[in-house]
Amino acid sequence: MAFMSKTELIFLFSLFIIAGLTVFDLFLNSGHPATMDGLIHITSIAQFGDVLRQGEFPVIWLNNFATYGLPVGVFSHQLPLYVGALIDLLLQDPVLSYKITLSIGVIGSSLLLYSFLRLYAGRLPSLVGAVLFSLTPYKVLNIYIRGALPEVFAGIFLPIILLSLYFFLVRKKNIFFFVIALSTAGLALTHPMMLFLYSFIFIPYLFLLLWEEGYFSFKSPFISKKTVYGLGAALLSMLIGIGIASYYLIPLFLEKKYFYFGQQKNFLSEQFLTVTNFIDPSWHYFFANDIYTRGHIIKPGILEIIIILVGIVFLVSHKHIFKRSQAVFLWILICVALFLLFMTLSVSKPIYDAIPQFGLIQFPWRMLSGFIFIPPIVCAFLLERYKNPYIALGLLLIIIVGMAPQLYGKNFVNYPTAYYHATRENLHSVNMNTVWTGKTEDYPVRTTQSETIEGKGKITDQQVRNSSRTYTVNAQTSLRMVDYTFYFPGWSVYVDGVKVPIEFQNPDFRGVITYQIPPGEHNVRVVFQNTATRFFAQIISLLAIIFLIILFFFRKRSYSIIKKYV
Asked: What percent of the chain is modeled with pLDDT above 90?
């Protein structure tokens, strides 16, 4: 296969145009459409950019988010926000930066899936599969109704991981060891739940490649040195990737207890799908003059389900048209697809109850994020084996004509840019407020960062940054000071270089930092620092990066050892 032939470039360009058209309406209109999460991500991009301008990295605290600031970097999706923030540093337009970042996810995932399909199918079948993926109903919903930037952006990494596993284990290109590690890290930093979901696809594919390439067999001995080195190398690369993302993953799981969300024992929201979601071909609208999002009925897609069923029929009745390894791959994918669809239904509730980790996905219908990759792969395999270009072109036309009318946003709004750089409410919902605060929008607007609330004295000089403030305070009596910042572990107060206690349970300043200083003139520093958890997590990430760099520079020597067995 010549990836960069003239014909190949024409197909890639065609896919680029079709995938680009799925987000075209975002750029056709100024402002952004009313979506469920779009405003959250635009605001986070704007404020991540503000923090990066001050030279802070990693971004944890957003001082202008939710009235008095919150550690959004602890729980919010890292990579798409950093990408959007870096774009915003250039454009000074968080809305446009959001649209570009979303488009990178939409177009990039389609082009990369096409590249993976080309390993097994011709150009036209691969194009049809990639277009099916671009225009699948759940993806359209994520763009124009949910505004689910992280889920869309995460779609980039599954094809990269699949491609990298193939080139590493089949083509013996050791450089892809590092691509696997970096793409695993990228996926974890984009959306940890997608790492869990996508593993239902890339882990079986890993074992399929190992079996196909003779790393192990079902004959004795099942496990050999070759198995250990092949499987071990692939899993090590993924483990390094998770290690790189540890600075985010470890605090995410260990510090969630400080939020109302983390107090829940069961994270599952029982928004299960019904049979109607599977068979209803129409897109619903609540009101013609709806001032919020378009009506959203989550659906896997009728065409996608038909393709899965046709795949089963062909595997049962025409299995001879597939190579054995391809038939096994399709059976695995179809079984995974059926399982993911099953997990969207209420009958799967006992599984969620028995395995609480599944509940971390929050919404059962989020299983569709993994499902939407499978019908395109099955479709490409079927079209490649059936060898009828007219059927392929006809299906391509059906996909485009069927979904093109849905590619639009609704109720575009144009806020002043300043609107995104400071918010009163917690846009992530009150569940992401800390357990010692109330609704953030109920607190008075901050007109100054700090002031005296008890005693006689005044601030004569102050410097305020996102994660630190320094004050010169002239106290005629003992003072109680307030810093209008919501307390979170990591905030410390130093008076003349000596750490003093923080109080954040004052009924009049619930959850807000207050502290005392003695009479006299003092230098006060209020600063957000690493906790032991965050420091430990960052050390792990640093060690993982160093280890990966060392492996890269000594890759030839390391690979010569592995090559003896693989």
From this structure: 74
